[in-house]
Amino acid sequence: MADAHKLDCESVSDTCRFIIQxxxxxxxxxxxxxxxxxxxxxxxxxxxxxxEHLQIV
Length: 57
Ligand SMILES: [Zn+2]
Fold this sequence. Notes:
This protein is α+β, with helices and mostly antiparallel strands. It has one domain. Helices cover 42% and strands 19% of the residues. The protein contains two helices and three strands; from the N terminus they run ββααβ. The protein has helices spanning 25-40, 46-53, and strands spanning 5-8, 19-22, 54-56. It has a three-stranded antiparallel β-sheet with strand order 2-1-3. The radius of gyration is 10 Å and the shape is globular. 16% of the residues are buried. The mean pLDDT is 92. It binds zinc ion.
C-alpha cells in the first residue's frame, strides 16, 4: 500500500478540522495551499507545508 501524505489543519489552526490526504505529495501540497489561502487567508510556502505540516501516513 502506498504511503499517503496527510495534512491535518488542526496542527495549524485550533479551530479548523480540515484534513487533506493524498498519495500524491504535489497534490496534497497544492490542496493545502489552496485551503490555507481561501479559508485562513494565509500564504504558506510549499517547503513550510512539507516540512512542518505534512505527515506520512
Ligand atoms: Zn483549515
